[in-house]
Amino acid sequence: MENTHLLVEKLGPVLTLTLNRPESLNAFSSEMVLGLTNALGQAKNDADVQVIVLSGAGRSFSAGGDVKTMGQSDGNQVYEHIGKLNELILQMKDLEKPIIAAVHGFAAGAGFNLALACDIIVAAEDSKFALSFSKVGLVSDGGGSYFLPKLIGPHLAKQFFFSGEPIPAKRLYQLGVINSLYSLERLQEETTKLALSLAQGAGKAYGKQKKLIDQSFNRSLEEILEEERLTQVLMVQTDDHKEGVAAFKEKRKPVYKGR
Known about the structure:
There is one protein chain. With 259 residues, the chain is of the alpha/beta class. It has ten helices and nine strands. The chain has helices spanning 30-44, 75-94, 110-116, 144-152, 154-163, 169-174, 184-199, 203-215, 221-235, 239-249, and strands at residues 6-11, 14-19, 51-56, 99-103, 106-108, 120-124, 128-130, 167-168, 180-182. The strands form two sheets. A six-stranded mixed beta sheet has the order 1-2-3-4-6-9, with helices on both faces. α4 packs across α5 (154-163) and α8 packs antiparallel against α9. The longest helix has 20 residues, at 75-94. The radius of gyration is 19 Å and the shape is globular. The two termini are 32 Å apart.
């Protein structure tokens, strides 16, 4: 069955997932969340996909939860819906491939948190972000309470959550939340350039490094040191490592295959 709320395009090693509810600024729907989860699950098992780009159609990246439908669900329905969103966030963090969020317009509420769950965020210079949950008497969902304090500290995170006011992309870039800023006209071009550059790199190493960094927030130095050691034992046996060493010795550019 075709998922009209999500556009999926595979261009060589890059898989682009575009949130596609432009009339509602790409507010989340069950169909969209399920589509993202399924697409990432397929990408996990597709050796040809090395990098995923997440973007939004129309005027914005995503407004997050659909305010028009709020107040129509009971506690059980909310519990189920957020459970599906949680599955998506965990799928993103479990995927051993880089995910790039390309943000333009607004990234609000869970839309902001969806970007935070990605590995790299690039954004249009005039884009804005907002943790707007408090504006409608809600708390964060989609992992924002986990991701943001680790990036900017608890005090500033609380300020952003409490106020719910829009945050200019430039401020988040200065805080290290956003990796790169571009004009709106250049955003797609620069995102594609970054994705293709990553896709030509040592994908297997990228995936394992992603997991080590994410695990570092919840594990001790001793545990991470041991995990690095065990992972390196696996990495020296990969085709990518062998190709990297051979290319270095032969003074040529390596041709990695993510294996």
